[in-house]
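INFO  loader      accepted 1 record
INFO  loader      residues=302
INFO  predictor   begin
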Amino acid sequence: METNKASDSLNSVTAFERDIYTEKKKLKPKNIGLHAVIILIGVIMLYPLLWMVSSSFKEATEIFKNISFLPTSVTFENYVEGWSGLSGVSFSKFFLNTFILVVFCIIGNVISCSMAAYAFARLEFTLKKVLFAIMLVTMMLPFHVTVIPQYIMFNKLDWINTYIPLILPKFLAVDGFFIFLMVQFIRSIPRDLDEAAKIDGCGPIKMFYKLIMPLALPAVITTIIFTFIWTWNDFFSQLLYLSDIKLYTVALGLRMFLDAMGQNSWGALFAMSTLSLIPLFIIFIFFQKYLIEGITTGGVKG
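INFO  predictor   done
INFO  writer      dumping tokens
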């Protein structure tokens, strides 16, 4: 008898859950309208990007004269022209330079910002709160306020037209945003694990790379993704410090198509712009899980 009652209760609960699931699956008129508005906004936001990709397959004379979204005849000449580059330098050289710059910036940010975050989150030292407040203030300081003093300093060190001004600051933990992100994430890690590690004989350094860094992996990957995107898309700093075409990055290489010998190569520009977006899409698609986890965990638990 009791078995039958338990079975009936289980069936009723299952039926109730099934009804709730069915109710959720039904699209109400207001939901349909909301979805339609969201899709419309998404299409409007993506239209310039889709137009650029479509234009990269058009003839140069067709890009601005033909109002049709799709090309009348598909051509890959723009990609061939753009990849061959300008002034005897292939666009592959710009991609290689950018990847080298990005890799060193990522290494610098991960090492320096994680160490600074670990110190603020776990260690005790003099003026800790004051230094943390100063770090937060640097996040509110506009980049353009410090760009002239930095340029003068790097110029006196004879580092202009090298990658040093773009890479060296990353090893000095200058990006307060990543420090703050990691501090919040590390604070969410239970301190009981620290005590257990101390019992096992771990010192502060060993605890950092054996315990904290593996547990803070989502925050580290978030730092890697943002560093990659910001460095890849950076134009102003690279334009400021680089003048040799052999050192140009993708951002500077794209600019060359607009003023090369007084001619604007729009087709090649759109083609190379399309290729320059591929690494960003790949990074975001494969690591978006860690990106969301790193931001939400650091913000909610911190």
